[in-house]
Amino acid sequence: MEASFRSVAGLTQRLYSLTLRILTLGAVMGVALAGAAEAQTKKSDGMLVEVDVPAEEYISPTSRIFARVVTNPPAAVLAPVDAVMVMKDFKIGETVQQGELIAAQNDGNLRLKLELHRLNLELIDQRRNQLEDQIRQEGAILELLEKQVTLLTGRTERLAQLMSNQVIKRDQLEAVEIQLITAQRQYAESRGRITKLRADLKLEEIRRRQTEAERDEVRKDAAATEIRAPVTGQLIELPASRQQFMREGDVLARILSGDDFELEADIPVGFLAFLRKRDQITGIDAEGQPVTARFRVELPEENQKTATRPARFEIISPLTPALMAKGARLQLDIPKGDGRPALTVPVDAIISDQGGAIVFLVSDGLARQRMVQLGSTVGDRVEIIRGLAAGETVIIKGNENLRDGAKVKVVNTE
């Protein structure tokens, strides 16, 4: 019985192994058939290629000249007032963002000044109120004196008439005249006091405006207790101590921003005329990354030994890491002649062939080989002196293993 069971188990195991081999063989054949079908499809559709059209442009002969990175004066962060400044926890070389808090000032002295100005304004207002009251009182007295003078003047005139008619004696007239003179003197003195009081009031108003201006200046200083970065950049200078007394105008920090970087190169004098005509020039940094710059100015110096002048260039392409250091080296393509029309293609279109150069064109879905004569290289393009015409389509990708007459399929046609 046990032998019968072992026989059945062995048979089952052999059937299971045979089934696995059949399934594995089917999978392999399926993959092979799929690969063959894909290869057949690719063969029938042609090799996938990318193309471009020769461009007509003006090019200038250039000379590659070494340049260096220079920096303009960095942004200075100044102490706004005489005060104890407390710097935040920054280190030389760290980057700060525009508007970021970098220092704060102790504003205790400013608060004291504001309190003194407040008290001075209260005293000035009290003096003004007193002067205005005195002016009103003196004005009332002046009105009474004016009425008294008017009455005495009329009485004097009547008594003078009576005395001329010998109705009264002169002593009576003289007594009234003395009263009139006294009233006129008191009237004049009252007017003088009012004039003096008004002048004092005007002076207090001037003092108030002056005190308000001083108070507003202190308020402005108090509002500037938080000193923030004026630009985004790298900290290149910090004070010796994190907390110290500083005078107004002392430098708290210096920040070098990306806009402070420029390029400088010693340009042969004979090239300057052509450089002035160019809007932009190109080059590469120390890591081979492309650089685009704009000629800004030539400096009024000339090296008699090399017949060169230093020129400054504004960096208009993104600032690469290799350029973010004073003195960093790079190369610029400086024009050394006038521009001329030329037909150019991407460098990727050119294939070396036994000392010459060939390109592949697309014609009716086929790759056609053609010999060309090369001229100057302009960035990532090369001049074609002979062998191509404007409007023809050249292959720039997928041309490495092409043969003349091979079937191709363009994948970047717009």
Question: Notable features of this structure?
Answer:
alpha+beta, 6-stranded antiparallel barrel, disordered N terminus
Write the layout of secondary structure elements.
Layout: H1 2-45, E1 47-52, E2 55-59, E3 62-71, E4 75-78, E5 83-87, E6 95-96, E7 101-105, H2 108-164, H3 170-223, E8 226-228, E9 233-237, E10 243-246, E11 251-257, E12 261-268, H4 269-276, E13 281-285, E14 290-298, E15 308-315, E16 329-335, E17 340-346, E18 351-353, E19 356-363, E20 366-378, E21 381-386, E22 394-397, E23 408-410
Parallel strand pairs: 1-23
Antiparallel strand pairs: 1-22, 2-17, 3-12, 3-16, 4-11, 5-7, 5-10, 6-9, 7-8, 9-11, 12-15, 13-14, 13-16, 14-15, 17-21, 18-19, 19-20, 20-21
Task: Walk me through this protein's architecture.
It is built from 4 helices and 23 strands. By secondary structure, the protein is an alpha+beta fold. Strand 20 and strand 21 form a beta hairpin. The radius of gyration is 49 Å and the shape is elongated. Residues 1-13 and 22-43 have low confidence and may be disordered.
